[in-house]
Amino acid sequence: MTDATSARLADAFMHVAKRLRGRWMHQLAPLGLTPGQGRALGVIARAGDGIRMADLAGRLDIVPRSATSVVDGLEDQGLVLRRPDPGDRRSMLVTLTEAGRLLVSRIEQAQRGAAEEMFGTLEPAERDQLLAVLLRLNACGKHPGSI
Amino acid sequence: MTDATSARLADAFMHVAKRLRGRWMHQLAPLGLTPGQGRALGVIARAGDGIRMADLAGRLDIVPRSATSVVDGLEDQGLVLRRPDPGDRRSMLVTLTEAGRLLVSRIEQAQRGAAEEMFGTLEPAERDQLLAVLLRLNACGKHPGSI
DNA sequence: TATTGTTATACTCTATAACTATA
DNA sequence: TATAGTTATAGAGTATAACAATA
């Protein structure tokens, strides 16, 4: 009984996620960015004075190799730049360029637009409730491989 | 204010979706299936006497081309078979083989397992509430491209 | 002409393994 | 030896366009 509800939950959940991702893609496409790049640019912007690749990967919950691809794409468009960490020359610090800084607000606007398209029909109380549940789900059990 | 909540909602939502997908992949991997294949096998099983490629794609909310890849994978493993629709020779009817039938219950068990790992910590009332909200979100605004 | 499914192609995201350069 | 980031490679998912067979 409970199992069936969980399965239906998972199905409905992934369906919403798919649509949310699609809307986000369409919002970001005019800016020439993929969802992953948009997300990364936000993290880099919030980091302020430069963020190391490993830390960026951690914040985005992706493996370091994926962070390389994302930053490559942003760098190709002149939105970020890499410079060696003065304190540890193995590390790279990623910072926004002026062009990147100018784009951040438009990206956040696109993200909000996609989110509003998806969740705009919910009552404010429902959103708060949903957010609380999601944060709790994210808070516990961070190990996808193990139980 | 509301915008900020929606953006945080979207972020938390996609994070849960990512982890749910990861757990699902790990549950299905021992069966040699990808999440898309597992989902498709369930739809084909519920269709009973054969489902057309276009209908399968519609149920999975993917483009017909993607359905071809999914069914290819299942057919390679001998879990489904294609036969021409007697009523319209342009169409293909996809049905389960005996091997596919035997696997369905294990797949559903894996899906429930992943869902339980993710949503098991929620109270029953919370699950019902969450499910209701998700179904409502999926019910309205089915057009990702347009507004 | 329109529809069904396919081949061909491409891009995003993800992941593992091996390599380079530092530490 | 250990770590940071990269190159190399691979597979899943998605999408569009062009094509063949059929309606």
Automatic annotation (TrEMBL), chains A, B:
<dbReference type="InterPro" id="IPR036390">
    <property type="entry name" value="WH_DNA-bd_sf"/>
</dbReference>
<dbReference type="GO" id="GO:0003677">
    <property type="term" value="F:DNA binding"/>
</dbReference>
<dbReference type="InterPro" id="IPR039422">
    <property type="entry name" value="MarR/SlyA-like"/>
</dbReference>
<dbReference type="InterPro" id="IPR036388">
    <property type="entry name" value="WH-like_DNA-bd_sf"/>
</dbReference>
<dbReference type="GO" id="GO:0003700">
    <property type="term" value="F:DNA-binding transcription factor activity"/>
</dbReference>
<dbReference type="Pfam" id="PF12802">
    <property type="entry name" value="MarR_2"/>
</dbReference>
<keyword id="KW-0805">Transcription regulation</keyword>
<dbReference type="InterPro" id="IPR023187">
    <property type="entry name" value="Tscrpt_reg_MarR-type_CS"/>
</dbReference>
<keyword id="KW-0804">Transcription</keyword>
<keyword id="KW-0238">DNA-binding</keyword>
<dbReference type="GO" id="GO:0006950">
    <property type="term" value="P:response to stress"/>
</dbReference>
<protein>
    <submittedName>
        <fullName>DNA-binding MarR family transcriptional regulator</fullName>
    </submittedName>
</protein>
<feature type="domain" description="HTH marR-type">
    <location>
        <begin position="6"/>
        <end position="139"/>
    </location>
</feature>
<dbReference type="InterPro" id="IPR000835">
    <property type="entry name" value="HTH_MarR-typ"/>
</dbReference>
